[in-house]
Amino acid sequence: MIDVKQLKYFVTIAEEGQITKAAQKLHIAQPPLSQQLKQLEEELGVPLFDRKAKKMELTAPGKAFYEKAKQLLRQLDDAVAEVKEIEAGATGTLSIGCVKSCFYYLAQAVRRFHEQFPNVTFHLREGDTFSICQLLQERQIDIGIVRLPMDAAHYEMIRLPSDRYIAVLPEHWALSKPYLSMRDFADWPLLLLHRVHGAGQYERVIEECRRHGFEPNVLCECPDATILLSLVAQGIGATIVPQSTVALFCLPGIRVLDIIDSSMNAEAAVIIDRQRYLPKSAHYFLDILEKTVTRAEPPSLR
């Protein structure tokens, strides 16, 4: 009879690629681990690994069983978490991943949630949209807050209010007018947000520049909004970012201006894994987040 322990052992061996490494990770001796794997293969009647290779590689039946075993272990973890929450209520740790340029949406919701549920602690992770999706797939976070566009096929999505793009310039640049047009950026070095993987805000800004008849002079690409704003404050160049980004990360030495002829809007969304049990605390947080962002006034320009 196959048990949960054997499934955990098998999945660990598959992921580590060696009995020795798997035994170290599981904190057990190597011989009993090898014996458990042998018993599992005898129970199934098929070899799960090709032992001729230097690294233990899954056979075709092994690959199929690995995916099913992972799914079963996840379902078991979800069931245990759900049963514990029925008794405990909203407690424990809520893990949230957020794109830095979306922190504006997160900050007020965290404060309001903590006021209502003081027994829940937070584990916050930061990254671009691609890395937040990876963290969600790896079950390292419960909720992701990302910039669009993205492939939403595997996620349940809650769209957040759209956000216009604004200009951020070094404060010492001599400009007399209180706003800009896109053509003003034609001769300036631009510092732009760029995802580690995939298309996003960078491509939108480039496309908008071309729509206004010029090829931008991109001096720097970076996935971190605070780094870009710091570079602007040092006089390196100008940037175009969502307005909410500046609302939380406004630094001395910069000037924020509206762009009167830009058609760009930044879009954000909350994503969750529709195949996974969502903790009770996460449901409460999503409810508070939705209410917070729909009632909040849009961030103002300085």
- In total, how many beta strands? 14
Distance between the termini: 67 Å
Rounded radius of gyration (Å): 25 Å
Helix content: 40-55%
Low-confidence stretches: none
Question: How would you characterize the overall build of this protein?
Answer:
- The strands form four sheets. Strands 4-3-5-14-6 form a five-stranded mixed sheet, with helices on both faces. Strands 7, 8, 11, 12 and 13 form a five-stranded mixed sheet that branches. Strands 1-2 form a two-stranded antiparallel ribbon.
- The chain has ten helices and 14 strands.
- The longest helix is centred in the first third of the chain and has 29 residues, at 60-88.
- With 302 residues, it is of the alpha/beta class.
- The model has no long low-confidence stretch (mean pLDDT 87).
- The termini are far apart.
- Helix content is 43%, strand content 22%.
- Residues 2-59 form the HTH lysR-type domain.
- Belongs to the LysR transcriptional regulatory family.
- Keywords: DNA-binding, Transcription, Transcription regulation.
- InterPro entries: LysR_HTH_N (IPR000847), LysR_subst-bd (IPR005119), WH-like_DNA-bd_sf (IPR036388), WH_DNA-bd_sf (IPR036390).
- This is LysR family transcriptional regulator.
